[in-house]
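Board notes (copied after class):
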Amino acid sequence: MRDEVDELVEAWARERADLDLAPVEVFSRITRLARRLDLARREAFAAHHVESWEFDVLAALRRAGPPYELSPKRLLHETLVTSGTMTNRVDRLVARDLVERLPDPRDRRGVLVRLTGEGKACVDGAFEALLAAEQGFMTGLSEDDRTRLAALLRTLLVPFA
């Protein structure tokens, strides 16, 4: 079985036989797969009327478990955005009735961001659609292959954590 990366590597090997092209074989495939995954992610979210950034915030709240609330600081940590960006995002999600702001009972000056019922339904539907799309990407892999692939990718990502 061959793909376009095989052709790319062959061309580079012909032109630059002096280079080790092993990274190209791995990362060119990851890059191409990431593009396809991004498109699938956008389609899954669009079907549920949610943008990727909205899903990221809603999913962080959903993963928190009942009552599905986090401080803005914790949301920053979960979504890796700046404070100003998070304020803007929460404002927009409040306007769509997907989250609400509540006073933090542990800090009179603080607030909590809580997922609404509509927000929970939205993120659950979008997540189910995303999982279905991602399952489609892995149909050619056995369960053992999936486990090995996850472990190998983890090994590549750990140094960046």
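Comment from the instructor: DSSP finds seven helices and three strands in the chain. The mean pLDDT is 94.
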